[in-house]
């Protein structure tokens, strides 16, 4: 069983410091590579799916969150307002109010819809110290978020497409969904009081779940009261860590509340104003929680495309060090992440053990250096033997490009 907090420190991925504060981890160079690669993967997938990316500030006036409903229904999870002259500003707890304002800043025709706005942005939650833990529960969250503004007739298909995008990402990342949950309101006053909107949104999400899945046969799901967002129901994609603890990684929501609160509209084919539907979705949830789960799922042995170091080159003696650096230069020119571990780092056996989580090791002795070869060792223990350096780099680049799980498939 792997603990991402222990692995993260052992592998020099992330850490914390009391002077920065609890629940505010910082990322070390190798961790930053994992995070950056994951973020670029998501942006690429979103661009291919028709999303347009934006940036919005992490601060907003208190008035903004009063309009959105966060101030009334979510205040206990927000940081206190800061006085800025005659105004009060707040660290945002969510990106959706900002995206609603971005939509509202321009007029829109029905011909533009669906309009898909995505951002990987920071948000802040005033979590109590007792619940903080590693990367899974933090105070500064970097969320892979998006909001789709569409017609009522488009909402089910957009939510269904969002679930398909989540499924593809999970396959590429090696993540398994443990179950799907339809999260509904429960008892208490933290929810927006508009039964009509709740019924409409819930009915649409049930339709999404019932029509998604393999061959459109539907996804098995469970309804859970008390787990909804304050403004509407949502589909939660649940994951389970090696210790059996369940958490939410990805979500899809259909929201009628905020379009009304922000008076959003588009011009329909009849020339009149119509209210859009707002579909919220997050493919990998927060980067922090996603990396924590990937660390535990893979035990630090990330898939080739996500590994901070994809190839380590091991010269047997100092005489082969220049050839080893040449191999690394060629690898970097191919867009790969490679480094040399030379005799100064210890015996060959010690260096092999130190690089046990790197997908590919290339050992270079006199024979390999003279012939332009590399003796290949794989992370899974296999030794394909000595191959031309060009072939090795081509194989690694192919595995990184197709995000394949197999390190050395048969030719």
Give a nutshell description of this structure.
The protein has helices at residues 4-10, 29-48, 62-68, 70-73, 96-104, 152-173, 195-211, 257-261, 287-298, 321-333, 348-354, 366-371, 389-402, and strands spanning 14-15, 26-27, 52-53, 59-61, 82-84, 87-91, 115-124, 140-150, 179-184, 221-225, 234-240, 246-255, 266-267, 273-274, 277-282, 311-315, 338-340, 360-364, 373-378, 385-388. The protein has 411 residues and is α+β, with helices and mostly antiparallel strands.
Write the layout of secondary structure elements.
Blueprint: H1 4-10, E1 14-15, E2 26-27, H2 29-48, E3 52-53, E4 59-61, H3 62-68, H4 70-73, E5 82-84, E6 87-91, H5 96-104, E7 115-124, E8 140-150, H6 152-173, E9 179-184, H7 195-211, E10 221-225, E11 234-240, E12 246-255, H8 257-261, E13 266-267, E14 273-274, E15 277-282, H9 287-298, E16 311-315, H10 321-333, E17 338-340, H11 348-354, E18 360-364, H12 366-371, E19 373-378, E20 385-388, H13 389-402
Parallel strand pairs: 3-7, 9-10, 16-17, 16-18
Antiparallel strand pairs: 1-2, 4-6, 5-6, 7-8, 8-15, 9-11, 11-12, 12-15, 13-14, 18-19, 19-20
Helix pairs in contact: 1-9, 6-7
What do these coordinates show?
By secondary structure, this protein is an alpha+beta fold. 35% of the residues lie in helices and 24% in strands. It is built from 13 helices and 20 strands. It has helices at residues 4-10, 29-48, 62-68, 70-73, 96-104, 152-173, 195-211, 257-261, 287-298, 321-333, 348-354, 366-371, 389-402; strands at residues 14-15, 26-27, 52-53, 59-61, 82-84, 87-91, 115-124, 140-150, 179-184, 221-225, 234-240, 246-255, 266-267, 273-274, 277-282, 311-315, 338-340, 360-364, 373-378, 385-388. The strands form five sheets. It has an eight-stranded mixed beta sheet, sandwiched between helices. Helix 1 (4-10) crosses helix 9 (287-298) and helix 6 crosses helix 7 (195-211). The longest helix is centred in the middle third of the chain and has 22 residues, at 152-173. The protein starts with a helix and ends in a 9-residue tail after the last helix.
